[in-house]
Amino acid sequence: MPNENTPLLYQYPEHLRHTLETLPARSGVYIFYGQDQTFPLYIGKSVNIRSRVLAHFRAVDEAKLLRMTCNIEYVETVGEIGALLLESKMIKDRRPLFNKRLRVTRKLCSLRVDDQTTGIVFSNELDFSTSEDLFGLFKTKFAAIEKLRDIADEQKLCYGALGLEKLSAKRACFRFSLGRCAGLCCGKETRVEHQTRLKMALEAMKVRSWPYPGRIAIEEKSGQQTEYHVLNNWFYLGTVSTLEAAKGVQTATPHFDRDSYKILCQHVFRHQGLNITLLD
């Protein structure tokens, strides 16, 4: 008899076929529910909800999810931006069983690098949305250290200067004797040169400061429909149907949100022609 960890054999979910008739071929977020309609099993997003759900129905590796699902609901959005932001918010708020990504991370790490020092800072102690000289967003201190170590090996940076190991006074580090350190520890290069190489290696990971004085509303249109997505300090505050209503969205920003930051950087601010209104 199979135990509870045995993967279920895939069967087409005939018990869900009727739901396809109700799903729109439009942008939005969809929610898989089990017998408990208050606790979602899975939340996803797509520019075509019906097509994406149908892809789930054909996914052999999602047999367990499909077997447990009793109902599928959806929330339409005007476009992809709204779907991305709403999916991220709903997953954090409702914590569906099968979602592994976009779960809330209360404390993030980043590397803070200037001309003299390198350190690891935390989002619960420092406002990442306005701080300068931050590189990378990591879920754990260990991940930040491993990234710093990898770059140190590539760029022949000094482990001691980076805080990765202790240095003996007035002595070169062991890695210098192996040709793996360019010699900051023994005066072969200046600290500014050392830190400049580090920052150049990290440039692609530089964390952008929030580029506005306060809240903004991003307009998204599709045909005759319009939505305004309100954000502040990289945090998604909500979506409304008019600009006047957007001015009234005043929810406080509780913490720097890594996922909203990535959505805006990857899917919003790279596009030209977006209508962005300053609300403050």
Automatic annotation (TrEMBL):
Domain of life: Bacteria
InterPro entries: GIY-YIG_endonuc (IPR000305), GIY-YIG_endonuc_sf (IPR035901), GIY-YIG_UvrC_Cho (IPR047296), UvrABC_protein_C (IPR050066)
Occurrences of domain GIY-YIG (ranges): 25-100
Keyword Endoplasmic reticulum: no
Keywords: DNA damage, DNA excision, DNA repair, Endonuclease, Excision nuclease, Hydrolase, Nuclease, SOS response
NCBIfam families named among the record's database cross-references: PRK10545.1
One Gene Ontology cellular component: excinuclease repair complex
Species per Swiss-Prot/TrEMBL record: Rouxiella badensis
Name under which the protein is recorded: Excinuclease cho
GO biological process, one term: SOS response
Record GO terms (molecular function): endonuclease activity; hydrolase activity
